Amino acid sequence: MVGIANVMVIRRSLFIFVWSSVSSRFYTVSASYGRSLLLLGINFCEAALAFAIFYTFSHSLFSNGHVVYAPIDMLYFSLVTASTVGFGDITVSSDTAKWLVIGQILSSLGFISLFVASFVAGFNDSEHA
Q: pLDDT-derived band of residue 14, with 50, 70 and 90 as boundaries?
């Protein structure tokens, strides 16, 4: 069972993730091409960090028997998952964790597709200018 303090940390990290995703849209509407890519990259890192914080305080979702992972391991797992590499050295042990990882993969693919689309659009604009 997750304690009250862990629930508060999880709620705070999810709020930071959602707020960073929403707030970046307001700042990039009239921003330059370079700033848009920079903010998209920063938001990608914020999302990976928010998932790492969530994973760190959810030990029961990832502990396979007696192994409890350190915060650096969860950051590593989050960045490997976000970059779609997936080495397989850390695995999830519950259905809830699998759903969380699926959510992270889908959000990471969304960030990657937005980055590629923005990059290609900027490249095409500079070619026609």
A: low
